[in-house]
Amino acid sequence: MLHTISTVLVGIPAVLLMLAVAGQYLPIVGFSIVGTAISTRIFGVALVAIALAATATALLLWSPSAAGTTVLVAAVAAVLGSVSNGVRQLATARRADVAVRIAPAVRRPRVDTTPDAAEVYLRTRDEELSLSIWRAVGTGARAPIVVVVHGGGWVNGDRDSGGTPGHARWLADRGYLVVAVDYSLSSPERHLWDVQEGQIAEAIRWVAGCADRLGGDPRRIALIGESAGGNLVLNVGSRIAAGQWALSVDGEPVVIRAISALYPGVDLRTIWYSRDVVLGKWLRTLPERYIGGSPDRYPARYDAVDSSTHISVTSPPTLLAFGTLDHLVEPRTVRTYARRLREAGVAVRTLEMPHSGHGFDEEGSIGCQIYRELTLRWLAAHAGPSEQPGPRHRTPDLADPPPVDRGSTC
């Protein structure tokens, strides 16, 4: 009896873990989503699988049985699958010439991501919109500026959610002035497809105007966004570059030097038409709340927020990072967007994390380490040093601004 109970106690987690790991390779309903989630800690998963395999071996030696053999096979399969994924992640790092550490990929490290300051940049009739500021560390000169926009499907999240604070602190520690932005969220009652991008532009206006006080250089501004935030920074960056919004400081235009987008929702039509058995119904609610309805009902609105419609030869150099098994943003949509950028003559680099999904950049993970290092290189390559670091005080003008009150001034 004791042996049977022990076999069951080991067998259940072994089989479940095997199915989750298998979901990284096969379209197993439900388990594929779990598999992409545990992919961020794949080396920790491998250690658990090894422990289960060792325990199953001991039970089999204690009393051989068909059930014990099945448990051992499941545990070994989980070991092989997780190790294979881990090897592929390390190979991705090697191809990107990024040195990664295994320890933080096994156990998520604790990182103090507390911002140095927070200020209101915009006041609407219903709310105040704020941003968090991480000042550049270890630089006496005015630092390049990175504006970070959080994800959440255009309906959830804030500047303290997701990987935003961790990425902000990491970049600030490497000499960047980082500003994370809140924006109004859509809901079943209000559809802000024509509002959120303007708010992000207003945040960039505020940052450029306050750059001198914050220790930043308004001529070296880059954007980072994840998921819905990726869609917003891609659209806003291209629209500013195309002159749809005329941001300037002392008569000089504010130029977005580079963009780094994590699993960006570039194509809302594809999200609405998702066929994912588990997530499809929920996914459809995101563009419906943001846009107000289906693509058939509002085709012009979907065109307006489709990132590909804003591509031009002036679009900023763009780094795109995504997981090959993303269930929220289909990888093919990001690949198509990258191809269209290249066809327009825009500098592009892509990072595809194998067997990974939305949120592959969890703190300390291999994907996070690769993404951050590639982003750092991308920013360094395209947000070049300022040639004339004179003081600036005047707040820039934004053509056709949203009808709102300004926040704090500089």
TrEMBL record:
Keywords annotated in UniProt: Hydrolase, Membrane, Transmembrane, Transmembrane helix
PROSITE patterns referenced in this protein's UniProt entry, alphabetically: LIPASE_GDXG_HIS
Keyword DNA repair found: no
UniProt keyword DNA damage, yes or no: no
Domain of life where this protein originates: Bacteria
Region spans: Disordered: 383-410
Any GO MF annotation of the entry: hydrolase activity
Alpha/beta hydrolase fold-3 domain location: 146-360
Transmembrane segments: 12-35, 42-62, 68-87
Pfam family for this entry, one: Abhydrolase_3
Protein family membership: Belongs to the 'GDXG' lipolytic enzyme family.
Protein name: Alpha/beta hydrolase fold-3 domain-containing protein
Species assigned in the record: Nocardia aurantia
Lineage, uppermost ranks: Bacteria, Bacillati, Actinomycetota, Actinomycetes, Mycobacteriales
